[in-house]
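Dear H.,

Thanks for agreeing to be a second pair of eyes. The structure we're designing against is below in token form, covering all 300 positions.
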């Protein structure tokens, strides 16, 4: 998997991938990152990348020509060229509710430049970036991330080249660089082999349902649930006693089935308290629903 970042601030990424899991993934060549300075694709003395907005108003806009050249330098044609003759027109409106692209709507392999590539525009106006989307991006071969600055990017770049417009949250950043780093981090850790323990990416907040997780455990009941769209349960480590609080006894008794039940209840409690909106789309068993009702009654 390769990430290509197009930015006017290549220096932003110095050091950002030098720690932890990302550093290891790069060192082991499970992923690679190319940082492309947009100014290298300008042709004037001042290396101009921006201009005043048509129609007036605040700020500056990233010009289309250097961006188009930067994308072309990566061997990527405009969408219309890629899709010629396929009768296919991918757009983010085709995405499923959970944020993943509907499989039948994803770009046909034959139309992609050299590999499974997506061009993403980082934008506060984009569709919300979710864990489901990160899972889908992690199956690609190459992701091109276009980082906006100032008031944003000339919209024709979005229309001509971008397969998705992604926002990392409902707030406005000064530039797409932080957003690109977020997308890379969340996606990269889901690539097989990147996390030390292969399964550890599966048992996290916003993860898939239990039934979708295959583990190698034989004979021992698994002590975790696939979150099925819920938040993670709380974690504890040594010492057992800290700040006058004792870690829950159930976690120390070695009964995996009991631990699993407790953790599920905690996932439900946390989600109900912090993100009740997630419960609607979560995969909940009959037992989960009963537990949830009991928690609701208890908190009334
Ligand atoms: N005028 C834009 C608006 O109101 O939506 C904001 C532009 S912002 C100052 C500059 C750049 O930061 C954007 O072009 C985009 O690349 C990036 N950006 C800002 N907020 C973002 C977000 N929530 N998610 C992803 N990228 C973001």
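And this is the sequence the design step returned. I haven't edited it by hand at all.
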């Amino acid at each position: 998997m390769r990430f290509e970042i197009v930015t006017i601030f290549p220096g932003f990424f110095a050091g950002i991938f030098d720690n932890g899991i990302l550093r290891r993934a790069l060192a082991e060549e499970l992923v690679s990152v190319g940082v492309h300075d947009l100014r290298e694709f300008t042709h004037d003395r001042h290396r101009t990348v921006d201009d005043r907005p048509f129609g007036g108003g605040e700020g500056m806009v990233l010009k289309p020509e250097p961006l188009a050249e930067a994308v072309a330098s990566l061997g990527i044609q405009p969408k219309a060229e890629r899709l010629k003759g396929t009768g296919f027109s991918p757009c983010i409106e085709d995405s499923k509710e959970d944020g993943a692209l509907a499989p039948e709507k994803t770009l046909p392999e034959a139309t992609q430049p050299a590999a499974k590539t997506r061009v993403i525009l980082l934008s506060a106006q984009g569709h919300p970036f979710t864990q489901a989307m990160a899972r889908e991006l992690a199956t690609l071969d190459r992701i091109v991330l276009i980082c906006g600055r100032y008031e944003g990017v000339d919209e024709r770049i979005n229309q001509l080249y971008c397969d998705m417009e992604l926002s990392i949250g409902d707030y406005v950043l000064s530039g797409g660089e932080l957003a690109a780093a977020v997308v890379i981090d969340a996606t990269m850790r889901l690539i097989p082999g990147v996390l030390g323990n292969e399964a550890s990416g599966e048992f996290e907040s916003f993860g898939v349902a239990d039934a979708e997780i295959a583990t190698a455990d034989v004979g021992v009941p698994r002590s975790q649930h696939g979150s099925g769209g819920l938040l993670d349960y709380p974690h504890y480590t040594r010492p057992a006693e800290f700040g006058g609080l004792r870690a829950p006894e159930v976690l120390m008794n070695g009964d995996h089935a009991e631990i699993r039940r407790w953790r599920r209840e905690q996932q439900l409690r946390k989600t109900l308290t912090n993100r009740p909106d997630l419960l609607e789309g979560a995969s909940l068993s009959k037992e989960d629903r009963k537990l949830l009702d009991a928690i609701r009654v208890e908190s009334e």
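Two observations from my side: The domain at 202-298 is CATH 1.10.1270.20 (Trp Operon Repressor; Chain A). The radius of gyration is 23 Å.

Warmly,
E.
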